[in-house]
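Extended Data, record Probable nicotinate-nucleotide adenylyltransferase
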Amino acid sequence: MRYDIPYAAPGQVIGLLGGSFDPAHEGHAHITREALKRFGLDAVWWLVSPGNPLKTRGPAPMAARIEQAQAVINHPQVTVTGIEERLGTRYTAQTIAALQALYPRARFVWLMGADNLAQFHMWQDWKRIAETVPMGILARPGQRISARMSRAATLYAPYRILGRNSQLLAQAHAPAWCFVNVPMKDVSSSAIRASGAWSA
């Protein structure tokens, strides 16, 4: 199935929120709205991945996940895309490199919850990601301490932008990262699947 390539205007700063979105939920929408506000982004793209290399169980079909994600987020600055499948990339570092080649005049910021920062050092080429694009980290329930004490946070501590200066992230040069505390919604895709509320 073909997925349209999103449009990016020259000079636009685009936040990238990757994941299986299996299913997308209000927690994803909440941190997206917060990221737009806190980090001075022009847009956010939800990168619905073909599959998460760190998960053994395969996700629901791509078309179903994209349809659900579009139903969850209805925002003029947010685009839901399956471009990773189109690009043929499997890992975040590969996706970022491909997007930078495809959109040389756009600027990208990688977005993730604090739970992902805690295990970021397990990602393929994680240092290359941190040194290629600025990263915006949004607090999630129960993960603040483990994220701040993580290997990545320790290694890149000199490049941290304080939360009160979060608007500087969009124009920062990597490595640069900013951790912001946001009003949290304790909802997860795994809990939704476990409840039986999501089947595709």
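Summary. The longest strand covers residues 13-19.
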